[in-house]
Amino acid sequence: MQKLRNHQPGSAPATLAIPSTPQGQKPAISLIEYDAHHLEERKIEEVENLADCLNNDQVSWINITGLGDAEFLKQLGAYLRIHPLALQDMLNTGQRPKLDEFDEQFFVLLHMIYKDKDEELLVEQVSLLLGRNFVLTVQENRGKDVFDPVRRRIREGGGNLRFMKSDYLAYTLIDAVIDNYFPIVDSMVDFMEDLQEKLLDHPTREHLRELHDFRRTISQIRRSIWPQRDILGRLTRDESGLISKRSKPFYRDCHDHTVIILDLVENFREATTNAMDLYLSSISMRTNEVMRVLTIVITIFIPLTFIASIYGMNFDPKASPFNLPELELPYAYPTVLLVMLIIAVSMIVYFRRKKWL
Amino acid sequence: MQKLRNHQPGSAPATLAIPSTPQGQKPAISLIEYDAHHLEERKIEEVENLADCLNNDQVSWINITGLGDAEFLKQLGAYLRIHPLALQDMLNTGQRPKLDEFDEQFFVLLHMIYKDKDEELLVEQVSLLLGRNFVLTVQENRGKDVFDPVRRRIREGGGNLRFMKSDYLAYTLIDAVIDNYFPIVDSMVDFMEDLQEKLLDHPTREHLRELHDFRRTISQIRRSIWPQRDILGRLTRDESGLISKRSKPFYRDCHDHTVIILDLVENFREATTNAMDLYLSSISMRTNEVMRVLTIVITIFIPLTFIASIYGMNFDPKASPFNLPELELPYAYPTVLLVMLIIAVSMIVYFRRKKWL
Amino acid sequence: MQKLRNHQPGSAPATLAIPSTPQGQKPAISLIEYDAHHLEERKIEEVENLADCLNNDQVSWINITGLGDAEFLKQLGAYLRIHPLALQDMLNTGQRPKLDEFDEQFFVLLHMIYKDKDEELLVEQVSLLLGRNFVLTVQENRGKDVFDPVRRRIREGGGNLRFMKSDYLAYTLIDAVIDNYFPIVDSMVDFMEDLQEKLLDHPTREHLRELHDFRRTISQIRRSIWPQRDILGRLTRDESGLISKRSKPFYRDCHDHTVIILDLVENFREATTNAMDLYLSSISMRTNEVMRVLTIVITIFIPLTFIASIYGMNFDPKASPFNLPELELPYAYPTVLLVMLIIAVSMIVYFRRKKWL
Amino acid sequence: MQKLRNHQPGSAPATLAIPSTPQGQKPAISLIEYDAHHLEERKIEEVENLADCLNNDQVSWINITGLGDAEFLKQLGAYLRIHPLALQDMLNTGQRPKLDEFDEQFFVLLHMIYKDKDEELLVEQVSLLLGRNFVLTVQENRGKDVFDPVRRRIREGGGNLRFMKSDYLAYTLIDAVIDNYFPIVDSMVDFMEDLQEKLLDHPTREHLRELHDFRRTISQIRRSIWPQRDILGRLTRDESGLISKRSKPFYRDCHDHTVIILDLVENFREATTNAMDLYLSSISMRTNEVMRVLTIVITIFIPLTFIASIYGMNFDPKASPFNLPELELPYAYPTVLLVMLIIAVSMIVYFRRKKWL
Amino acid sequence: MQKLRNHQPGSAPATLAIPSTPQGQKPAISLIEYDAHHLEERKIEEVENLADCLNNDQVSWINITGLGDAEFLKQLGAYLRIHPLALQDMLNTGQRPKLDEFDEQFFVLLHMIYKDKDEELLVEQVSLLLGRNFVLTVQENRGKDVFDPVRRRIREGGGNLRFMKSDYLAYTLIDAVIDNYFPIVDSMVDFMEDLQEKLLDHPTREHLRELHDFRRTISQIRRSIWPQRDILGRLTRDESGLISKRSKPFYRDCHDHTVIILDLVENFREATTNAMDLYLSSISMRTNEVMRVLTIVITIFIPLTFIASIYGMNFDPKASPFNLPELELPYAYPTVLLVMLIIAVSMIVYFRRKKWL
How far apart (Å, rounded) are the C-alpha atoms in residues D28 and D64? Predict the structure, then answer.
């Protein structure tokens, strides 16, 4: 499980603290300004550089990568009239996805997931602020730039992205984040099927550990996708006017994607519970089989050994005719062997009847 | 579990990708146009052929079988004013059933289930677009044409299908899809009863596997029928006017069918959980029985063998009168046998009291 | 689990199929017409016989027993303006309880339960159609006529049944169906208490089967009563005016009864889960006890037998003074016996300390 | 579980049947009439005695203890215009708590719980009818008069009870019933903690039974308190005006109490589930420990005994130099003992490594 | 679990009882009065001292630490027009968090949690009354003053606390309480991960106890945070006007914090259930392994010992040629040893095939 923010209890709300992580370096800030006919991209160094971009009809997308510069963010906040709580949430990583509606602005905090080189699942926080004619995005950007395909599409001008407003850009960006869940969830389908097969056939401690790790991954994805579904549901029902009627079907489509992912994740949850049951049942079955083998072996040989040990006693047949007279009978040994055989065979018949053999 | 669509993360929404499956061939397109008095059926090659059919009062049913021709679909979409997201959903298989309401059109995506030759359960996606005076259906059509009975009923003119509008046709088609669940769910009732009986009587690893497979089938059906219930519920409560008041009771009836199926499926779910419990309890009971047999055999024979082994020791009675003087007593052997018998009998009595025997 | 209707997938809705069960014989149709002052009972052969009964202010109760005559029902349907879907539901047995609201008519489908001679639980479908001044009831009537007490009360004129309208008659009939659940659920209380006691004291495979059967009975009752509770809830909140304000408290009372039954059934469900836990725990406990006995016996006797077997070896003391010189020591045997005793006693003390004895 | 009412299926609703229990004797009826300045208490024999008390502004509290006199109740019902269904509910014990709203009257049925001399939990039904200026209470009164403290408070005139209307009196009486749950639930806290401790340390069959009984008690309390919470919630939201705005906070407070009790009871439920898990885990752990001891003892001694039994064979060394030549070697015996020691020690080392010792 | 209030059943509502705990001493009362420009702090001895502070526009924060002086509280209640039920709740510890809305006042009861010196989790009740221009807080103050950081912030005048009204002060105080949950929940993350690792690797009774204690802690935190989430949700949706529109986002932020905590706690709950499963599976696996070792050892050595015991019988070969003639064969001993070896080896091969070795 991920740790929570390292916010000092009792400190003032909306405190901007630069996270003390290595990537807390000077962030890279870029601006893309476009409408159907124009497109301009540039790097931003000073907040003042943004001045003209907000006062025209073009869509402005300000993207900040890295969380290192609280001062810049504060200026930007004042400039774009961002609520201090939204600013704080952008910087504080380790939060739950959420949607806050402020006057004329939506603040959306999302979780992006991806696998690193070691195939380990990482969760990264992405914030998005949607205003009338701009979108501000803030990424931790530890490993992956999720927005690259969007940038490419803006440049190429394909689809209807360039013909629509900032709400559609926001949709495109959110959709890019959500779409990253699909390949990961997809790869889990195979894994799960395999695991269940293995648990049925020969359950080992190793598989138990794999199952356990799988459960934790599921729980992690679920914690990210669940609130994101709610966020998209709320955006779909938005009545503030920030999301235009024309964009609504696209938000609804994105909402459907979160529902599909959540549906699969819930399915995994159920499947892991079943797998745990399988594991336990398989082990119980195995123990039962082992026990049966043990019991059969013992039940056959212990009485035979007992009989042999009787005739291994050293009572002196010479001292009295009652002391083990069998020892000197001519057919005693073959008779004893025969008795033993009969006992063994009837045991085996008995076990066959009981279906233990 | 079914894999998700192979949509590239970050690609534009509403991209029409022809699925790379073998059945992605040139689709067959047919048109049935009817009202109470007329009926016309023909194959459609060009979108322009549809021109006249939409501008009259007759009900037009356009059926597309196979997903291979994205270009045709795009033209058709433009012609019928289908939202690009709906078009995309028609082509992308592996989706969750859903209902999207667009202006003057309902887009319904359903799951049809059927068993193939190997008795394996297959899920096929069927899309349906309901407009004012037409219905468009798109099937993957890998194995089964679910709409054949409907076609026959239109031709024969039985029932009130020919006297009603496109909303009733849509109902008839949806109902045809839902009705396919009944025989499958019905066949599962017997299977489940059998399985439970077998688990109670002699639980084996094989039954565990059957139970496990059954669980997965249930989960699959449930994932299909659950959203379809919601879709029909929403259609029943439709206030857009696309579904006429006269058709509503039929949609409600169809909704009731999904409720019945879901009810049964939930019942199966509960039954499988119970069956798993049964299996575990049965195994535990069996292990306990095996243990009891083992313990009884050992507890009776081990002390007897011990006694015999005592008198099998080679202490020299001649070396000292304290060394196994019993060996030369006249009634030693019968006495020892008697003692052994007493021990065995009292053990048996003890086990009977403990209800182990 | 009960099988579903044998409706052909793809056939037209509202098809009237006579169920191919033995009781599908010519049904018996009776009419009771009454108000506060008059009462008339007669058998009905032709639909026309009903002509006058619907055009007066009296309450008419038409009761059909047996599902064999689809033709008559069709005529009746036309006569009473019954929706074809309602007609179809009357004939198709094996459905879920439901309430359909048509213009000026409520169609209610209920499940009656009773025990047959073999104490097996049977579910029978009872349909009821409530109109402005009539009530139509249709029973399968395989074993029991649930409406007999109502008929008697109408004849005797006790209570306020004769002073009220058709909605009160409908209530009385529904209540008669619901009331049949009470003795059955009541008899289950004792059974459950007994079973739990037995599972705690000596769990056997037989009890496991009883528990399993009990679970299935509960699940069956639950599936019947759950939707009936919802139906009565909806009738209680009816705003169409078909249920008069004066009758509402009675419907509410009947709704309360379904809540009580459901409450008990849910309780049973929980109790069976607990009983299953009890069973498993009891078995585990027992296995543990058996294991302890086994371990104690083995741990005491195996070392002793080992010692005895040492002195049963045939090394020749004469060949060397190191070969089992003990055999010829004068007090060897008593010493060995003493050592064995000490070992046995210390084992027992050890097990007592470990609370195994 | 408590049995349901012994209502005959099919009998008329609102039938007044005197319960055939010993306390069905002539009930005691008392009247307390008060306002801020006056207070009058008397016993009531005839319904007519109530005549004047209902037509003044004072609050009248009519309390009936014992359910024996259906005739009186019927007259009272006519006098106070009580709905027949409410009258019936007062007499029929074994019902679920409920609230029925009639014109100008609330009928509340509650469950009082208390422990009898044998510390067994008893549930008693208490009905309350709140009218404009009177409250009617009906108790079974088998063991405890829950309303005594209220009576005392009315007499002493403390608090604001005397200054308020019948709705406040009703609150006071309901609160008196609810307050009786607190000491019982409180006493269960300690019991549960003890039990969990015991289950962890040495799980026995006795504790399993205690846990089982505890579960049933919880389930019983829950079934009483759950609907009472809903009743109080509905009273708190009352809009009929029967509950004055000034009394509302008190009803809300009482509602909070039911929430607290329910919260604790739900907690107990969870705790018992955990305790069951604990029990099973503890037993499994113990069985594992027993098995380990068994396996260690057997694994050490069985090979040693085998070796000893080898040299106990009676092959004649004289018949051939290959027949047990060891028997006559000079250091054979010490060597064998040494080998045995080495085997035993390496076994112990092996088990230590496996953490079995 | 915490015990409930020691309220006497049947006593009048709103009775002020001084809790009989050691800290029920003379409480310390302090007043902080501030606006953007002024700040005044003083100790309060008499209620009259508060006179002037309520009639100005400044925000007054009255803080009472310790619950010992019911008389003072009663005077204060009269002075500030606090509802008697709110006063009672302030004094009665051991309650559930709640929000009561009175005219112009909100009464909020919260749970503060912290760890004492022994790392044990303690829950302390904090009440807060929000009026138009004042906030009254009452703490038990057994160990920790949670409001100290707030006091400091008022004095330092940082943030916007000094510029806002009493509703913002109330938010700040509530947030201070909620913030105390974060470090505690955070420390549990590591603990849980560790525990799961340990359960997988070597499950012991000690870990079971730790898991059990952890579960109880979770349940305790959950019972505190769950209602607090609801309280903050209701405050966020407040429509009485007591919470200004400007403060709402802050309340919403605080609500988000409770959601995050609850989310984590629910996650812990799931994780503990998984851990319990892990424990049981691990134990089962271990028992199975122990059983396998046991069975292998026994199955190999018991038949060998049996063979040895055969040739340990004392039948006299001289008495008859059928009595153990093997004993005198020249290669008998090596042959027997060879047979034994073959049996042992084939057993081992058999076990390897079965994957038991």
Answer: 6
